[in-house]
Amino acid sequence: MNLTAFLRQNKIEFQFLEKSSTQHASEASEVTNIPLDKIAKTLVFVNQDSKPLVAIVRADCSVSRHKFESCSHSKSVKLAADETAEKVTGYPTGGIPPVGHRKRMLVYFDEQVMNNEYAWFGGGTRARLVRLKVQDIIKLVAPQICDISVS
Question: Whose C-alpha in 8, 97, 99, 121 is 20 to 30 A from the C-alpha of 58?
Answer without folding.
Answer: 8
